[in-house]
Design goal:
Largest interface: A-B, 93 and 93 residues
Shape of chain A: elongated
Pfam family, one (chains A, B): F420_oxidored
Number of domains of chain A: 3
Structural class of chain A: alpha/beta
CATH superfamily of the largest domain in chain A: NAD(P)-binding Rossmann-like Domain
CATH class of the largest domain in chain A: Alpha Beta
Protein name (chains A, B): NADP oxidoreductase coenzyme F420-dependent
Largest sheet of chain A: 8 strands, mixed
Oligomer: homodimer
Order of helices and strands of chain A: EHEHEEHEEEHEHHHHHH
InterPro entries (chains A, B): 6-PGluconate_DH-like_C_sf, DUF2520, NAD(P)-bd_dom_sf, P5C_Rdtase_cat_N, TM1727-like_C_sf
Radius of gyration of chain A: 22 Å
CATH architecture of the largest domain in chain A: 3-Layer(aba) Sandwich
Number of helices of chain A: 10
């Protein structure tokens, strides 16, 4: 049984708290946040503290915090022997170098408060300051996920950018789709099966092979009809992605 | 039992042929293409013809053809009493007005040759030149799908643009994600659970509410780190979608 203190109360902290609490060999023993109000939903379930000097001895201190405070908080945990972990895609391992034992525990998923998350298939990207710590972090990660991968800081940064494209940016394209539907009195739900199919298709096909549409076909007539129908604010995105598709697939505009 | 002649042998024709063949009350009686070689995979299963003047009498003539030949082919079907249908998102109902009975049968989905498709939940957008024909088309559509919606030509055009955003453009963002992974020695499969979750999340949340990421948080430091890591060709897309997210959510760059 390993004992974990979680620092932070945001979406990542919340979901990791939940999955750790259900794991057989993990015991969350404390949750920290500097604001008492943020601890409200945890305080009925677990010991909480707003005082960083009152953290309990533990095997792991999981910093599920905003990127810009990770290094600073880590420095205040100098005296702890447990492994200090952060959960950020964008922050290097060396942000924790003031500690003795440290590593990264980055679950590659987008967390929202109101969504239940099954961690079993979520890739956990791990990194550590020593082989011994890496093994310990791996064991921790395998308690909740079947997909644990060693990813170094440079790769993790690249992965974080890639995640922005496939997650944040795709979701924004869904928002634009919803806006176009609203503007024309169409129920957005009509697009949901297409959105699902688009995502599921790349389970078996490379995205490049799955590409379809007027940009790929270089169907200028349809492209012009689409541009005529779009408000200016969306024309630029339409043009730029159309051109990017044609560049990737070697078509001429 | 209604009888259908399918004109065209592309992905849409192929998948509609398959689902119609399995439907209880539909009988596909003939497939037409002007090229004999294109009919090869159909000719063992069904009567085929390359001669448009040899089409059999049928209740429906389904034109699953390239947009730019729909009107021309429809004109050659003047003497048929069956309902002439096209399957295009981009073409208006009036492209078929040379016929007596006509309408639109637009399945809102992206079809690839090597993907099996379950039509049950695919929205079928229908339109017709008369209430009577609309009812007949509706009955046909309900044979294969539970989601049949009356959508007029203007709405269908808007829907087609929205579909380009959520399907073609999202898929291209997956391609960019895959490219970034390749460039950094990361197996693209690591992004697949995130892609699936991103698509599934909007079943319960509006895309606008599901938005997360550095653009939404106006996290300049992360945005700059991402831009520094990206090749020039992807910087423009990153910047433009970041700005579009901030415009939609009322953040300032």
């Amino acid at each position: 049984m390993v004992e974990v203190v979680i620092l932070g109360t945001g979406n990542v902290a919340f979901h990791i708290f939940q999955t750790f609490s259900e794991a057989k060999n993990i015991r969350v023993i404390q949750v920290y946040n500097h604001k008492k109000v943020s601890l409200k939903s945890f305080s009925k379930l677990i010991d909480t503290t707003t005082n960083i000097h009152n953290l309990k001895p533990a095997d792991f201190y999981l910093l599920a915090l905003k990127d810009d405070v990770i290094s600073e908080i880590a420095q205040q945990l100098n005296n702890h022997k447990g492994i200090i972990l952060h959960t950020s895609g964008a922050i290097g391992l060396n942000a924790l170098q003031s500690a003795t034992n440290f590593g990264v525990f980055y679950p590659l998923q987008s967390f929202s408060k109101n969504n239940t998350v099954d961690f079993t298939e979520i890739p956990i990207c791990i990194e550590a300051n020593s082989t011994e710590n890496l093994e310990k972090i791996k064991s921790l990660a395998l308690e909740i996920s079947t997909d644990v991968r060693e990813i170094d800081s440079e790769q993790r940064k690249a992965l974080h950018v890639a995640a922005v494209f496939v997650n944040n940016f795709s979701n924004h394209l869904y928002s634009i789709g919803a806006e176009i539907c609203d503007d024309h009195g169409i129920d957005f739900s009509i697009l949901k099966p297409l959105i699902t199919e688009t995502a599921l298709k790349i389970k078996n096909l490379k995205p490049r092979e799955a590409q379809t549409g007027p940009a790929l076909r270089n169907d200028q007539k349809t492209i012009e009809t689409h541009l005529a129908l779009l408000p200016n604010k969306h024309k630029h995105i339409y043009n730029l992605i159309t051109q990017s598709i044609q560049d990737l697939h070697g078509k001429k505009l």
